[in-house]
Amino acid sequence: MSTATISLPPTSAPASLPRRILALLPGTLLLFAIGIAGKSLEALAVWLRSAHRIPFPHIEYVLWAIILGLILSNFLTIPEIFRPGIATYELWLKLGIVLVGAKFVLRDVLHIGGMSLVLVFIELALSLTVMTLLGRIFKLPPKLTSLLAIGSSICGVTAIMAAQGAIDPDEEDTSTAIAAILTLGALALFTFPAIGHLLHMGQQSYGIWTGLAVDNTAEATVTGTLYGERAGQFAVLAKTARSAFIGFVVLGYAIYWASQGQAARVERKALFLWQKFPKFILGFVAISVLATLGFFTPPQLKSLGNLSQWVFLPAFAGVGLRTRLRDLVGQGWRPITVGVLGEAFIALITLAMVFFVYRHGGAQ
Amino acid sequence: MSLRTQRPTITTSKLAFNADAAAILIALALAALVRFNVIHHITW
To answer: A90 contacts in B (CB within 8 Å)?
Structure first.
């Protein structure tokens, strides 16, 4: 899950609660406007093709929302008044994920989530090792290597931000690691669906692969949804299982750097794990438990699933809006090279694991 | 070329509230509204 935004200066908090809420409105409305514009453009394209036989390319609403966001953030100057509200994309993303819990009964969560945990564990061990080796080969600063390894193995920018307080890296290293992870996330949006179609992957296997291989939760959700609604939901499930490990990995690195005398010692490890644990996962499980207990009727479950799709719209818009391509390419070639090589390795390994588990990618 | 030169700074913009807690609370509230038919038949 990403909480970082490129080149957005921290805003000074207005004094009162109503003013703070009011400050969020313009940016939030912009997120919704872009998301709904994306959905409208998809519908317009369908209408032009079917009613007027105009060969308008089929582009999913998800991609439209990202493209519109990218255009706004890269070719226009977004006024300061929108910036606090744009940061709420994180809230919409988490809200959407919690609501997706309605699409999974607890048995599925335990079965698929449990299986994902095994795959996540293997992915973690391999990606941490490979990223560390690549960082040494390309002579990256050791803490930058740690940040890249944490970001690529767990959940991207959130993991990097969690590690920032724990291993005390240079601000530049944090900045570079975030840029590398965001660049790779942007690349995944375009490459993963193409690979999935090329290999004729099922919705479930593709979604699980995406959740295992794409770092940021936002990009993983988008990359999954670009392949299909169900694929997006499985991507969320696998990514959620992966995010649950964040505390353990960051704690491991914190202990290592403390032993080197380059970070503060972690005194209360259980509290540290709880602080780093992404709490929205509990909401996802709670909604799933309610769905399993028959709290909702089937039409109500359908409504909650649809609601999650509406809520994801502003989150997808936020992915485009926070991506400043100029900043991403300006971070130096070595961290990006390490990131690309490491991520390609992780994508291939997780693809092989998913093919093995799902018998060549067919839906279960 | 040094890794520590001429890199654009990437700063973070944090929300002024806990997004996890807010997401859970809003989701539970929406789920309750759907369950008790205050909101019904949401289409896509």
So the answer is: 15, 19
